[in-house]
Structure formats: C-alpha cells, structure tokens
Specification:
Length: 197
C-alpha cells in the first residue's frame, strides 16, 4: 500500500511539473542565483516597507544574496522553483523539511517572493503547488509557512489557499529588532498539489 501511494505521488509530481512548466514555473538552476537574489531584494523592499526598518532594507545586497542563494542551490536541502514571465525570473519559492521539529507539520515553505508586477497572475499559487508537489513526492504529508504577522496581503493569500493559523512567535533578525511572525499550516498537502483553474 505505501509503495503504491509513493508511486502515485511520484507520478502526480511528474505530471505537476509538466503542468507548471506551461505556467512558467520551473526548477531553479545554479545560474538563477543572481535573478533569485534580485527578486528577493525588490520583493523585500516593497513587501516589508513599513514593517521592517528602512535602513535594514536599504542595506540588503544583491551580490551577498547571490552568493547565499548559490550555496542554497548547491546544497539542495529541498526544492527551489522559479517563476518566469517573458523569459525573466519574476518570482521564486523554496521549501524542505520543517526546521523547528514541529510534531504536526513535516515540511515547510521557507520562502516565496514575487516581483510586485508579477503578483495577482497565479504565479504564487503555481510556486506553492510546485514546492508542495515535490515535498509530497518526497514523502511529506503536511506543511507550514511562516509569515510576518502584519503582512496582511500574504496572510490573505495563505488563507485563500486553505491554510489554518497554527502558531506565532517573535522572529529575531539579529540586527537589533524582532517582529511577530505567524504560521499557517496544511495538515494535508493534497489540496495544494491540485491544478487550479
């Protein structure tokens, strides 16, 4: 039974990857590190304006983040996908095993960001689907994602995807400030892996 379920998950993941490629989402490559870093900086500066200190956002470096994302892509702790529009990377998402040993949620979306002009086009949903499908094929059945408590737009997005509020803590940025973060959880990955119309 378990072998059949794993086989079905792998087949579904392959089908999902083909569907996502048509939607402009693909697995990230090492040479995407710079584009991912660029999206990261632009998305953070637009998303977190007023939520995080301006000087912290201003100090973000695409060069430094390119090195970090290059390391992330080489170490391959979990899936990283990019969303493209017109041949340009406009968003990305990454995930893997849940990092805090939560007994209910085995996997986590570590990051998902889109350029402002790429939002509202279904790419965020496709990125979540790509990460969730890959994690499901790897044997995970549940997932969570942390989001700044005051990031209401992102919270609305996760609620629309069926996420349930499951936790809250203070996130220490190790830069002289902390902000509240909340977690959304899905005890079943199946709804996140289905195509959306």
């Amino acid at each position: 039974m378990a072998a059949n379920a794993n086989r079905r998950s792998r087949i579904q993941a392959t089908s999902t990857i083909l569907d996502l490629a048509m939607a402009g989402v693909r697995q990230a490559r090492l040479d995407d590190a710079g584009a991912i870093a660029g999206v990261y900086v632009v998305a953070w500066r637009s998303t977190y304006q007023g939520l995080l200190p301006a000087d912290f956002l201003d100090r973000m470096s695409v060069d430094e983040l390119t090195q970090r994302w290059g390391t992330t892509l080489v170490q391959a702790r979990g899936p990283v996908f990019v969303a493209e529009d017109g041949g340009q990377v406009v968003g990305f998402a990454s995930g893997g095993p849940e990092r805090d040993r939560n007994p209910t949620f085995g996997a986590e979306v570590y990051a998902i960001y889109l350029l402002p002009q790429a939002q509202g086009k279904g790419l965020g949903r496709s990125l979540v689907r790509a990460v969730a499908s890959t994690l499901q094929a790897a044997g995970h059945r549940s997932l969570l994602i942390w989001v700044l408590r005051d990031n209401l737009r992102a919270r609305g997005f996760y609620e629309h995807l069926g996420g349930r509020l499951v936790g809250e803590h203070l996130l220490d940025f190790n830069a002289g400030f902390s902000v509240p973060e909340v977690a959304y959880g899905w005890e079943d990955l199946e709804p996140l892996t289905r195509p959306h119309g």
